[in-house]
């Protein structure tokens, strides 16, 4: 019984399941049908889309083919245009080619011609240069011969005259042109005779004959040319003294020191000496020393010393030679012409340090520049020693005229003492006295080995052109005239070997 009921229940359950499945199936079928409808719709829509796209494609292809055809036509037209232009350009191109070829050959021809011309010109220039340098060499040799001859004749002349030369330089008028300066000068100079000058003094005309008179317009170079052979003879072993003499303001410092633009005898002498030494390079060797002193109130001051206030004295040389020397005097070895310039500047600075007014001070003191040159000739071994003294003397005015008193009177007396001593030395030399009073002043003491017999002396007498200075000018020229009459005799060369060659 129980088994039957359980089967019945099971059947019931299965029936129920079947019913539910049938419900589910019919639901699904409905869904499938609706999907199928939907799919059909979509299919239809898709087909429509495809047709549309195909139509668009067709149209696009059609459009594209139409468009490229138009473009092709334009391009074709352009191509035809280019082609016809090319055809028309062809003769031009051909022409250009021909021209280019002809130009190229012209350029080639021209460069060949140019090269040949250059070579020819070069050859001609070389020939011309050779000829010119030959001619130059010849001229140079002639010139050098002339210079040597001039030097020799000058030396002979100087020796005949006794190795003392007196030159006069007339200072220009201040602030006047050179031409007016000459016309206005109270000193009469003769352009045709440069050895004479005359002055009308106290109603009488006084004439002076000297070795040379320089007009106010004379340049520093012209003055130096006159003394150059004497200066450079120092290299050959001669002692030389060049001194400027004259009243205050007559141009002594201008002549000796000069200015930066117009260097005076000092710098020009040193330059000429260095040029001459340079020209003898390889044949001679030289050592140059320089000292600078000032004599003020009979006191010697060393201008190259570290302490220029130091006072120096003159003593007999302890070597028994009888020569004088100044113990402690700075003697600088000079390395070059440039070095000399520095030393001169140092000397000037030192001189200026112990004076309040340089112009006044320089008027009352003597400035001495001494250059000693020792040379050695390589071939003979000869040794020469020459000394050049360049002296800017103190103003030479007379005490009575300056009306000096006190310190000024002392200065004036000391200046007078040394200038008087210089005059006495000159007088003694002129009279050929056996005793020459060099020791009467510091100045003559210092110049002893350059001023006396056997040496070369140049006195540069400076005069003012002004009427108001005529008295002083006459005094200076009288002194110059006396100096002119001194006969120092032939100069002697300081040379240290028997095998030494004679001066050229
Ligand atoms: N030849 C010249 N050319 C141009 N100026 C000159 C000449 N000579 C002299 N002077 C000028 O004249 C003035 C006086 O000259 P300088 O100082 O040389 O005279 P000085 O005789 O040395 O005088 P001091 O005895 O006072 O030293 C300076 O101004 C100088 O420049």
Descriptors:
single chain; 504 residues; alpha/beta; Kinesin; three-stranded antiparallel beta sheet; 11 helices; elongated; binds adenosine-5'-triphosphate; motor protein; microtubule
Can you walk me through this structure?
By secondary structure, the protein is α/β, with parallel strands linked by helices. The protein has a domain at 164-484: 3-Layer(aba) Sandwich (Kinesin). The protein contains eleven helices and 15 strands. It has helices spanning 2-161, 178-184, 220-232, 252-256, 265-279, 337-353, 358-364, 399-402, 406-430, 442-451, 470-484; strands at residues 164-170, 188-190, 193-201, 204-209, 212-214, 239-245, 284-296, 299-302, 311-312, 315-316, 324-325, 332-334, 366-377, 383-392, 456-463. Strand 8 (299-302) and strand 9 form a beta hairpin. Helix 3 crosses helix 5 (265-279). The site of adenosine-5'-triphosphate has 15 residues, from helix 4 and helix 7.
Task: Please outline what is shown here.
The protein has 504 residues and is α/β, with parallel strands linked by helices. The protein is 55% helix and 18% strand.
Strand content: 15-25%
CATH architecture of one domain: 3-Layer(aba) Sandwich
Determine the fraction of residues in helical runs and give it as a percent range: 55-70%
Class of secondary structure makeup: alpha/beta
Total DSSP E strands:
15
The CATH homologous superfamily of one domain is called Kinesin motor domain
How many helices? The count is 11
In N-to-C order, the SSE pattern is HEHEEEEHEHHEEEEEEHHEEHHHEH
Q: How large is the radius of gyration?
A: 57 Å
Ligand catalogue: adenosine-5'-triphosphate
């Amino acid at each position: 019984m129980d088994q039957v009921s359980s089967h019945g229940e099971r059947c019931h359950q299965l029936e129920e399941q079947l019913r539910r499945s049938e419900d589910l199936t019919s639901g699904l079928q409905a869904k499938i049908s609706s999907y199928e409808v939907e799919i059909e719709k979509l299919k239809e829509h898709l087909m429509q889309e495809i047709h549309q796209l195909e139509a668009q494609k067709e149209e696009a292809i059609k459009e594209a083919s139409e468009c490229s055809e138009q473009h092709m036509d334009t391009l074709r037209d352009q191509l035809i245009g280019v082609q016809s232009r090319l055809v028309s350009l062809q003769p031009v191109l051909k022409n250009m080619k021909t021209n280019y070829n002809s130009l190229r050959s012209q350029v080639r021809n021209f460069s060949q011609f140019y090269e040949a011309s250059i070579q020819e010109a070069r050859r001609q220039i070389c020939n011309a240069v050779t000829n010119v340098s030959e001619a130059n060499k010849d001229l140079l040799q002639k010139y050098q011969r002339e210079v040597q001859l001039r030097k020799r004749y000058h030396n002979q002349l100087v020796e005949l005259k006794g190795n003392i030369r007196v030159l006069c330089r007339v200072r220009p008028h201040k602030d006047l042109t050179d031409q007016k300066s000459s016309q206005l000068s109270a000193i009469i100079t003769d352009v045709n005779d440069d050895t004479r000058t005359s002055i009308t003094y106290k109603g009488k005309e006084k004439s002076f004959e000297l070795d040379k008179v320089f007009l106010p317009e004379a340049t520093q170079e012209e003055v130096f040319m006159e003394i150059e052979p004497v200066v450079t003879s120092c290299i050959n072993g001669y002692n030389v003294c060049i001194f400027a003499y004259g009243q205050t303001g007559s141009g002594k410092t201008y002549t000796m020191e000069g200015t930066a633009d117009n260097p005076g005898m000092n710098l020009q002498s040193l330059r000429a000496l260095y040029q001459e030494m340079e020209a003898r390079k390889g044949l001679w060797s030289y050592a140059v020393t320089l000292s600078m002193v000032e004599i003020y109130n009979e006191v010697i001051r060393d201008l190259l010393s570290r302490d220029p206030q130091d006072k120096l004295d003159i003593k007999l040389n302890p070597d028994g030679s009888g020569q004088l020397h100044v113990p402690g005097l700075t003697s600088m070895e000079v390395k070059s012409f440039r070095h000399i310039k520095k030393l001169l500047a140092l000397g000037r600075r030192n001189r200026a340090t112990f004076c309040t007014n340089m112009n006044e001070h320089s008027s009352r003191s003597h400035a001495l520049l001494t250059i000693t040159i020792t040379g050695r000739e390589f071939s003979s071994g000869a040794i020469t020693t020459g000394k050049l003294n360049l002296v800017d003397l103190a103003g030479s005015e007379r005490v009575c005229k300056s009306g000096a008193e006190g310190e000024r009177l002392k200065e004036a007396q000391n200046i007078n003492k040394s200038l008087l001593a210089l005059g006495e030395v000159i007088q003694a030399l002129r009279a050929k006295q056996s005793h020459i009073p060099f020791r009467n002043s510091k100045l003559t003491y210092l110049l002893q080995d350059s001023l006396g017999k056997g040496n070369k002396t140049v006195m540069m007498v400076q005069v003012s052109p002004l009427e108001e200075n005529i008295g002083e000018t006459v005094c200076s020229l009288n002194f110059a005239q006396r100096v002119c009459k001194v006969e120092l005799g032939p100069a002697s060369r300081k040379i240290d070997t028997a095998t030494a060659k004679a001066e050229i």
